[in-house]
Each structure stands twice: as structure tokens, then as C-alpha cells.
């Protein structure tokens, strides 16, 4: 877990500059999916990173307590900078795999964190369990296959294709007291100035940063070299697909 947190500490500034603007449409989709009328209680944002969800949530739900949770100290400090503009928001440094310490939440919103959890199925179950009856869960994550062709597909192929057991994707939110209201694929265009800029950002400002720490810079250099063989020249535009799950906690759970 330490390498993951340290990797994200080192990636934080690059992630904020390069990926946050490119991921913005998916963040907006996760927030926009929530109904205007939420039950009482805080909105929890596991894996908030620099907390791009906050500006949208704060504007849509004025005065609502909004709490970001992230493992990485570097990300938490950037999230806290953003939270200064929102008096009802705060950020907690912690592990989002188990949110058992929380309860009575109006909503849980998480973007691009679930696929990084050691056990995503259990994490999603934990996120659902903190909801108050009629509370909402809006999760956007990168599924196993995000595109047929494009930089994400290419980096996956360079890393050896299927890298981990993804059967959890078929079991998300099963055996939880929630009703799935939407299970959809959301796609937006994303543009990279060049293949070089993409792979540099990907290896230094994303989850690969932790792998560089555990496997060494030589590993990252090999990935970079392999990736750049036969890539398109100039701007590279693609249409990656994320999965969005929107679920509502049932009324009569007897759990509250
Ligand atoms: C791809 S970033 C997403 C940030 C933000 N939600 C966004 O949409 O831009 C993933 C974040 O998950 C955090 N993370 C990874 N594992 C975590 C864990 N077990 N508990 C809490 N946060 C975690 C990382 O520190 C990183 O900030």
C-alpha cells in the first residue's frame, strides 16, 4: 500500500495538470447523475485525488458536507487546497477500501479509483453500505477494455494484455442493499499532443508511477520504448470508454 501512496504522491502535480482536464467530462457525468433531492447526510468521495469532483458537487449541493478520502498525502494536500474554497468540504487521508467508519451518507461518488482497489468488489460493497436509505452511489471506473485502438489499448498491450483478474466487474454491487438504476458505458473524446507526451504523462503522473518505484526506472524506460514503436505522429485523439454505475440504496434495509 505504501508504494501505491508514494507513487500517487509523486504523480500528484502531473496528474492535476495532465489528466484532470482530460478526465473532466467523466467527473461531470458522475456528479450530474445524482438527483437534485438527496437525503440528509454527507457526500463521500473515495479516491478523490486532487478532488475535481468537489467544484461540481459544491455548486450542485450548496452547504452540503462533502468529504474527500484519499490514501496519498500529496493528493490530500492538493485536495485540501481546493477545499479551502468550500467551507462545508474537508479531506481525510485514509484507505478507501473499507469505509466502515462512515454511515448515514447521502451519496458516495467516486471517479477512476475503484479499479485500483485491491478488492474492488469488496470496496464497492463497503461504499454501498455507508449509504442512508434512499442514498445514491455513483461510480465511474476504467473497465478491463477501455478501447479497441488508441493509447490506452496500446499501453495495455505493451504491459502484456490482461494483467489481473477482472471477474469482479461482473459481480459489482451484487448482494448489496442497492438497486442499480444505470449501468452504462460513457465515452468522450480525449486528445494528447503526441504519443511521447502521452506516455510520459502516463508513466510519471498516473498509477504507473507506483510500478516505477517497485520495478525500477529501467522497466518504465522499456515500456516507453516499446510503446513508441509505430505510434501516430502528432496529435493523438481517441475515445476511451468508462463504466458508470448508478445505484440507490433501498428503503427498507433494516440497517439504520
Ligand atoms: C486516478 S486518481 C482519481 C482522482 C479523482 N477522483 C479524479 O477523478 O481525478 C486515483 C486516486 O485514488 C487514490 N487511491 C488509490 N488507492 C487508494 C486507496 N486504497 N484508498 C484511497 N485512495 C486511493 C490515489 O491516491 C489517487 O489519488
TrEMBL record:
GO terms for molecular function: S-adenosylmethionine-dependent methyltransferase activity. SUPFAM superfamilies: S-adenosyl-L-methionine-dependent methyltransferases. It comes from the Bacteria. Pfam families: Methyltransf_25. Residues 47-135 form the Methyltransferase domain. Gene3D superfamilies: Vaccinia Virus protein VP39. InterPro entries: Methyltransf_25 (IPR041698), SAM-dependent_MTases_sf (IPR029063). PANTHER family: 2-METHOXY-6-POLYPRENYL-1,4-BENZOQUINOL METHYLASE, MITOCHONDRIAL, METHYLTRANSFERASE. This is Methyltransferase domain-containing protein. It comes from Actinokineospora fastidiosa.
Amino acid at each position: 500500500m505504501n508504494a501505491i501512496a508514494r507513487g500517487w504522491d509523486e504523480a500528484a502535480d502531473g496528474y492535476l495538470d495532465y489528466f484532470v482536464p482530460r478526465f473532466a467530462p467523466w467527473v461531470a457525468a458522475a456528479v450530474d447523475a445524482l438527483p437534485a433531492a438527496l437525503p440528509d447526510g454527507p457526500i463521500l468521495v473515495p479516491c478523490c485525488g486532487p478532488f475535481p469532483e468537489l467544484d461540481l458537487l459544491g455548486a450542485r449541493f450548496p452547504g452540503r458536507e462533502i468529504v474527500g478520502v484519499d490514501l496519498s498525502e500529496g493528493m490530500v494536500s492538493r485536495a485540501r487546497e481546493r477545499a479551502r474554497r468550500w467551507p462545508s468540504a474537508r479531506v481525510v487521508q485514509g484507505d478507501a477500501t473499507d469505509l466502515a467508519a462512515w454511515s448515514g451518507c447521502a451519496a458516495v461518488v467516486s471517479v477512476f479509483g475503484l479499479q485500483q482497489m485491491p478488492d474492488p468488489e469488496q470496496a464497492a460493497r463497503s461504499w454501498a453500505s455507508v449509504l442512508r436509505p434512499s442514498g445514491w452511489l455513483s461510480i465511474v471506473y476504467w473497465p478491463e477494455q477501455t478501447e479497441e485502438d488508441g493509447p490506452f489499448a496500446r499501453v495495455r498491450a505493451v504491459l502484456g494484455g490482461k494483467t489481473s483478474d477482472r471477474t469482479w466487474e461482473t459481480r459489482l454491487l451484487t448482494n448489496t442493499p442497492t438497486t442499480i438504476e444505470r449501468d452504462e458505458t460513457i465515452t468522450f473524446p480525449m486528445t494528447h499532443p503526441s504519443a511521447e507526451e502521452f506516455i510520459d504523462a502516463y508513466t510519471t503522473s498516473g498509477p504507473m508511477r507506483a510500478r516505477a518505484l517497485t520495478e525500477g526506472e529501467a522497466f518504465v524506460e522499456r515500456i516507453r520504448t516499446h510503446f513508441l514503436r509505430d505510434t501516430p505522429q502528432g496529435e493523438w485523439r481517441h475515445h476511451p470508454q468508462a463504466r458508470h454505475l448508478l445505484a440507490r440504496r433501498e428503503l427498507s434495509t433494516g440497517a439504520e
